[in-house]
Amino acid sequence: MGPLKENDYAADEVNLSCSLDMFEDHARVKKMLKDIPTIVPNGGTKCQPFGPLFIEEKPFEDLKTILDKYQAQPHLMDSHLEEMLTILFQYIIEAQNSSQEKPMETNETTSHDISCEGSTTSHTQAAKDDKKDFQDSAHAKETTVADQAFKYIYLLSKVRGYKSIVKKFPHEVSHLMPIICMLETYQTQDCEFYNIYVLLLWLSIVIYMPFSLDDFSAASTPCSAGTVLSPVKRILKIIDTELGSSQSSRDMAAFLVSRLVTRPDLKHNYLAEFVQHSTKVISESSMESRSSFKVLGHLRALGLIWKHGRRDELLPLSGPLLQSLLAGGTTRRTDSLVRKLALKLVQRIGLTFLPPRLAAWRYQRGKRSLAINVVSHPEAVVPVENSSCPNPEKEEDVSVAAEVEDIIDELLNGLKDHDTIVRYSCSKALTTNRYSCSKVLTTNRYSCSRRGLLLPSTLPEVVQVLQKAFVYDKLLGQNSVGSNVRDAACYLCWALARAYEPSTLAPYVQQLATGLLLVALFDREIPCRHAASAAFQEHVGRQGNFPHGIDILTRVDYFSVGIRATSYLELAPFVASFQEYSVALAEHLVEHKLSHWDVVVRQLAAKSLALVAQHCPEHCSAVLLPRLLTAATGAVLVARHGAILALGSLAAALSALAASRGLHLSSYLSAAVLQSMWRVSEELRERRLVQGAGGAYMRVALAEMMWHCCTAKLPVPRPTIHEWTTLLEESIVYEDEEVNLSGVKAIAALWSFSCEELASLLPIADKEGAAVNKEGAAVDKEGAAVDKEGAAVDKEGAAVNKEGLVLSPDTLQRYLQLLKSDREHCVQGWAAALGGLPRTVLEILSSIKSRGCVGQQELEALLTCFLTATEDYTTDRRGDVGAWVREAAVTAMQVCGGLGEGGGRHGHAGVWGPGVLEEDAGLSDSLVMSLRRSCQGCSDYHKLVAVCATMAEMLRLDTSSSRSLLNQLLLFLGYQTDLTLGYAYSLGGVSATLAQSSKDALEGHLMKSSPEDIKIFIRTLMEVLTEEPPVERLVLPVLRTLEHFIASSALLDQVLEEDAGLSDSLVMSLRRSCQGCSDYHKLVAVCATMAEMLRLDTSSSRSLLNQLLLFLGYQYPKVRSVTATSLVTALGEYGDDLVSRGVAPSQDALDQVLNVLEETLWMEASLAVVREQRNKCCLLLNLQPPAPKKKVN
């Protein structure tokens, strides 16, 4: 289970549109097109694995990223397309011109002067020369300017669509032969498909020019057998090759051949021949992948031919082709795309058997004006005569071919296909056929209504089916089934708006409007929400009778419903403000969304229900709450989870609404309902439903309900509070992280609620003098009873039973003991729980103490608990989670510090010892501020006041100012040790900002300190290294602090050189800290510190050098490598001084040692080799090589 965070619901302003209003990147794109010659210099760069190829691919990817923004609104590019295409085609034409003796634009054969006579041989030779020149200019593995232009044109066609962009291609007859030559050349090369794709698309517009291709013999070329191929045959040969391609050029080849063979001058000679060839390819194809591509290409080509061709020309060819497709089982192939194209072809063949006609009964359309349609007067719609059907009574006398029955049978079988693309294609095909049987009308109502096949008398049945389709959602295994159904239902509504007059749909307006809004607001899938919004908009515009349609449409538009959280939490409450929809929205959330299979939908539904309920509180209170209480203890896991989530949020919302309206709580939440809510957690625990596989969901839901009840201050009985506390204590140490977080959140609210409730009883106790009625319950003004056991007041009215205080010192002590548990989840959970301790609880404790309800002994115990908590440094994969506990402890001490006897300034000086300051330097800035405010209870209070100045000034301090102010506390002897360790912990920690501020503060203090103070500073750090057992959390930070001050500054040099005993003790402490150590970071810090100490003129230099040489033979390669590097640096910088002080025997010996250190592979070499080299260095420096340890038998 992943936690659902509040940030996931954050959204931009509702009215902020995601649409664009212009092609704003035009200037940038134009510059990229003009820069093509600069990124492909000298006509091309050879493709290499790395290097120049990147220069060409980077602009291509940049252009792709830019154009992808306009995928949803490609029409914005229309006004600039011609300009961009002119630039790109100019590069291609110039490349072709440079490879020919005569430019393409001045070719002797033009669109205005085509000679069908003359020497065929001369034209053939010219074409061969043109082709040869182009081949010589293009190499197989070079990228040219033309190649880059082809890529850019492909991107433009991909975004805008090839049907739109091809109209703006240059289309002169003079372009025909060069395009054919380029296609033939590129097919023989290992080039990318962009070139062939664009050339085929270009050729498809060129052949549409009004000239006779059959007579165009100017570029005939001999084939291998010596015969002459006409341009048409050359094109067909190119097409046949590309129809078997696996790239997008296959689709362009199919588009080109459909235009070519249906030309008036070619259809008699080539149409039947190509159809027969394609039929043979499809029927003889195997299951091989290459053969499958060829089948796809020919099926698409035939489908486009039957789309573009004339009916009377295709009718003789339709029968044989249909028989071949059905006999070969093409419509039942395993490839879904093959099935789709085959069924598409079958449908278009069926249309050739049927003459076109218009249904006699079809509706009469009104004016297509929003201003007229939205008016309420039906006479505003002016009917238009249907002139397309002059004699409707004779329409049904039409004979149908026998093949249509087989075609409809195939299409009906296609409706059961498991692939959506196949079903949709068959659905569209069936409704295009106006002679389909009645079964088709009930199978696909969307397409039927759009094409006028749904009679007005069927609308009641259609609307009834729509109501079911709007909410259809079924989980099968790990997948949900139903999004396609809901999407189709929305588009059916969209079609109904276009098909019928407002008066026809008027009885169903409320049902359609409500259903569409439910899908637009609450559907899980974005496409369904978009479809419902579009259908709602269509009805508002065309029908004009949806309740509050215009008002709703301004907010619930196509783009705003794209964010699911926005739809649930912002748009749904807005729509619910209209009374026609509020109850329906609340009912839908309870009935369908709170029991949804997706946990995120259930969580959003619970939050949305609380917002929607404010517009229909009576219905939610009287109808929905009892249903939720029943579902909360039901048998279905998802229904229980959603119901419990909704119970808490709905109860809190109704409580707040009652308070805002000045009503009693019982107006919306009766006593029976509240009692049932309090029993939910107890019943689930008794049935053991908070354990096992679904236990995590139940614990999270119950924690959310408890949080809502506590924050809403509902009258929760004392036994229920204790029941909830027990459950939350278990949740805090649960293994699931989401359960931990929800438990921490809820128990913090529960603590606060319990203390506030206890504080509210004090005025009553003071006034009535501890009077308790005969039933043992004190009744407040609202009639809420407080259990005698939960809030018993003694005769003096001053002491409160500890059982009544959930957050008692004993409870805190028990929680703190759990932090020492061996269970990781237990430690993490309680660290987070105490870290989430709200300030409200502490303020209420202060109020209770001021009334004398917390004794001095209890307060001392509480402060001791908090002081113990400041020593918590628990860490896990999330980092220093103990910081939550430390911060909460210091905040608590700030509040409780003034509760002692004597005004708080001196009452707890012992408790407020200097040990607290050790924590300060290592915590966040907020903790630093809290500590300043808590200084009023410490000893040396007046001196500390002089340091801290005023409270307001402390709150304005940043990190660096805070550290500088803390330096003054180092002047007090009682705080030096702990504050020094706190600084060391910060300086050696993982936070770079905290380390830098601590380093600057310490350096500033040491620069002003006396030698004695510096010695105290060093001894304080040494005590950590020699302490038994060592405090592991401080050892590494202390080592890093020593490394910094010895390696990066000279503040400690004079003291260590003058005090030989202190220097020797520091070396011994460093050696002791690394004995038996396997922590790489500690060893590296010790090594760096010792290497820098070689520059000091002390008696321990030989000992330091000996220890560093020992590190050269260490078992860890990284330690050896770092030691060798440190030694090379130290001996190179301080070598002369070491020789003069007698640490090294001679400069020659140092040079030999440096050579050994630099030439030895300390990381890669074996341990025996590196130890041999280490011993060699020892002998050169007159040191005794370490002897290996003898194994004890």
Automatic annotation (TrEMBL):
Ranges of residues in domain Tubulin-folding cofactor D C-terminal: 952-1082
Biased composition regions of type Polar residues, renumbered to the chain: 116-125
Leader peptide range in chain numbering: none
Record bears the keyword Ribosomal protein: no
Molecular function GO terms recorded: beta-tubulin binding; GTPase activator activity
Domain Tubulin-folding cofactor D ARM repeats: 337-430, 449-550
SUPFAM superfamilies in UniProt: ARM repeat
Any one of the GO BP annotations: bicellular tight junction assembly
UniProt similarity note: Belongs to the TBCD family.
Alphabetic keyword roster: Chaperone
Bilayer-crossing regions: none
Name of the protein in its database record: Tubulin-specific chaperone D
Biased composition regions of type Basic and acidic residues, renumbered to the chain: 102-115
Region annotation Disordered: where it falls in the sequence: 100-134
Cellular component, GO, one term: lateral plasma membrane
A Pfam family assignment: ARM_TBCD_2nd
